[in-house]
Amino acid sequence: xxxxxxxxxxxxxxxxxxxxxxxxxxxxxxxxxxxxxxxxxxxxxxxxxxxxxxxxxxxxxxxxxxxxxxxxxxxxxxxxxxxxxxxxxxxxxxxxxxxxxxxxxxxxxxxxxxxxxxxxxxxxxxxxxxxxxxx
Length: 135
Known about the structure:
Blueprint: E1 6-15, H1 28-45, E2 55-66, E3 74-85, E4 89-98, E5 104-116, E6 121-122, H2 127-134
Antiparallel strand pairs: 1-3, 2-5, 3-4, 4-5, 5-6
């Protein structure tokens, strides 16, 4: 898969020993945690969606394609990309790479919906995110 959109952030993360499963490689849920960590770090850098704010992101759809087994020790780069923005949603994509070799371990996707925490309904996507997707 070719990752669509525009790269907006890169986060370096270590693979921890505890991320390994009984089969001796990183458990599939760990990949989703890396995507989540990258997404939250990126939104925090934009000062958007913090827990004290009235609106913020929720994920309504996510997926991953696992391309290569991931073993400890490893230092990883999680690249975040944005693509189509709707009135209340934004498509985000992720590449999980080895920080040294550049090998790609997985490709991921998450559809973010901006959410009003009081009314528990969708809210307009912040202009900052809409502009990033448009550029």
